[in-house]
Amino acid sequence: MPSAYQIVVNTPLWVWPLMLLVLWLGWRGLQPRVLPPVRLAILPLVGVVTSLAGIAQSLQPALAGAGWAVALLAALPLGWAIGTRRAVRLRPEDGRLEVTGGWFALGFGISIFFVRYALGVLSGVMPHLRAAPLWIVLSGSVGGVVTGIGLGWLANLLFRAYRGVAIGG
Hints:
Elements: H1 4-9, H2 15-28, E1 33-35, H3 37-40, H4 42-57, H5 61-83, E2 88-90, E3 97-99, H6 104-125, H7 133-167
Antiparallel strand pairs: 1-3, 2-3
Helix pairs in contact: 2-6, 4-5, 4-7, 5-7, 6-7
């Protein structure tokens, strides 16, 4: 088993700027801000893309996809519940959202990064895991949890922001 030093040294260079970007975006999420709804969706969409990329790279995509789907459905309610903790308001004058600051973006971004990093390291150190059905399901499930939490959070915020518009108030 390689040491932590060897793992860090052998990590591709593009990973470190990505980590800084995740930290910067998370740090910005601590501050209240006004943004278009599309910008609110960036982090959950990163979760979707990274998890689908993991499924596509799997030796058994159907098995990984099944684990992903089950985990996604299980994690949606958790993401929805986390979304209730953040205040959001639609500005009718320009369609932008006023969102309070919170720790979700930072924690979620770091979680996505480190879970994907750990899965990559384990696959590199123990390549035989990539063919093990349990590992394939677990890898897909991790992506499903990330996706479910992100999409549940986003759905809650958008639902609450647009609820008054749909009702007419």
